[in-house]
Amino acid sequence: MDRVSFAIERGELVGLLGPNGAGKSTLIKMMTGILVPSSGSLVVNGRVPHRDRIRHAAGIGVVFGQRTQLWWDLPVRDSFDVLHDIHRIPGEVFRRRLAEFDDLLALSTFWDTPARHLSLGQRVRSDLAAALLHAPPIVFLDEPTIGMDVVVKEQVRGFLNHVVRELGRTVVLTTHDMGDVQRLCRRLLLINGGRLVFDGGVEELERRTGATRDLCVVFTRPTRAPALPGCALVEQSGAEARYRLAGDAEPERVLRVLTAAAPVADCSFRKRSLEELMRDVYQGTSELVAADRRAS
Question: Is the pLDDT of residue 8 over 70?
Answer without folding.
Answer: yes
